[in-house]
Design a protein that fits this description.
This protein has helices at residues 31-42, 54-75, 77-99, 101-104, 118-126, and strands at residues 11-13, 18-20, 49-50. The protein is mainly alpha-helical. α2 crosses α3 (77-99). The longest helix is centred in the C-terminal third of the chain and has 23 residues, at 77-99. It is found in: Membrane.
Length: 130
């Protein structure tokens, strides 16, 4: 999918969602070339593009989203940045508060220090003595 320069000739089959494009550039199309192009479509010798299969539908959705976002950005970049940046900022704050909440609630006590013999330290670490 691409944007066609104006004027362009495109023939769309509405039942199968296939489209046909002439091989010649639009400014070189004569009435005879258009007649040959239409005749080749009727006899199914012209290449067809598009369709209604799942990969084409997915690509069409991607293309529509991309072109819509491009048009929004070209029309008003500040508003587009706010429309997408503000929800993403709130989502990042929500994710941060969910995944980093244990850091905020951590105890601020100093770890206990042991001063004694090395054997007593091993017993203290293993929890054998109090």
């Amino acid at each position: 999918m691409e944007r066609l320069p104006l004027p362009s000739l495109i023939v769309v089959n509405a039942t199968t969602m296939h489209h046909h494009l002439p091989e010649d550039p639009p400014h070189h199309l004569t009435p005879q070339a258009i007649q040959i192009f239409l005749d080749s479509i009727i006899v199914s010798s012209a290449p067809s593009y598009g369709g209604d299969s799942w990969p084409v539908r997915v690509y069409r959705m991607y293309y529509n989203a991309r072109t819509s976002l491009e048009d929004m950005w070209q029309g008003n970049p500040v508003l587009t940045a706010v429309i997408f940046g503000l929800p993403l900022g709130f989502l990042s704050l929500i994710c941060y508060s969910i995944w980093c909440s244990d850091i905020l609630d951590a105890d601020e006590e100093e770890p206990q220090q042991y001063s004694g013999t090395p054997v007593g330290y091993i017993k203290w670490v293993m929890g054998l003595t109090q």
